[in-house]
Amino acid sequence: MRLTSDDTYQAILRFLESEYADSKSDDLAGLLGAMQFKQEGETMDPAIMHDWINLSERRDLTVSDARLLAAEFLSKYGNLMNSKDLCDIAGSLLDGSKNMERRHKWDSAINSIVEGKS
Fold first, then answer.
1. What is the pTM for the complete model shown?
2. Gyration radius (Cα) of the chain, Å
3. Would you say residue 42 has pLDDT above 70?
4. Residue 32 near residue 95 (C-beta atoms within 8 A)
5. Which has more confidence, 38 or 97?
6. Is it the case that residue 51 has pLDDT exceeding 90?
7. C-alpha distances out from residue 60 to 16, 56, 64, 84, 91, Å
8. DSSP 36
9. Section 13-20 average pLDDT
10. Per-domain residue ranges of the chain
11. Which of 35, 76, 86, 115 is 20 to 30 Å from 48 at the Cα level?
């Protein structure tokens, strides 16, 4: 199964919403707010979508590639925001053994996208 960059972006949103529900992290709240879409279809912070497009190159991805891309995106914003929370989440996506619950949340987010495509 291949995912579009838009599918992967949606999976990141679902994953971060799940993470935020558990952590109530201010950094997650800030990033999630910036990533949300306005009614016009733009993200609340247009730079987020610009960065996403540059990072994803609008290519189709395997499920594994989508996870790595999500980790890269979250690592970038973790560093920009000086956020330990976001960097920890990115690290967990790269090495699932660090936090199995977090990896399970990612898998659930991806599976919900994949199931919606079938």
1. 0.91
2. 13
3. yes
4. no
5. 38
6. yes
7. 21, 9, 12, 30, 23
8. S
9. 96
10. 2-117
11. 115
Q: Which residues contact 110 (CB under 8 A, 6 or more apart)?
A: 3, 11, 63, 66, 67
In order, the DSSP letters of 39-81 are TTS-BSSHHHHHHHHHHHTT--EEHHHHHHHHHHHHHHHHHHT
What are the counts of helices (DSSP H) followed by strands (DSSP E) for the chain? 6, 2
Confidence label for 98 from pLDDT (cuts 50, 70 and 90):
confident
The long-range contacts involving 106-113, CB below 8 angstroms and separated by at least 24 positions, are 106/11, 106/15, 106/67, 106/70, 108/14, 108/18, 109/11, 109/12, 109/14, 109/15, 109/18, 110/3, 110/11, 110/63, 110/66, 110/67, 112/11, 112/14, 113/3, 113/7, 113/8, 113/10, 113/11, 113/14
Whether 107 contacts 9, CB under 8 Å: no
What is the pLDDT, as a whole number, of residue 118? 61
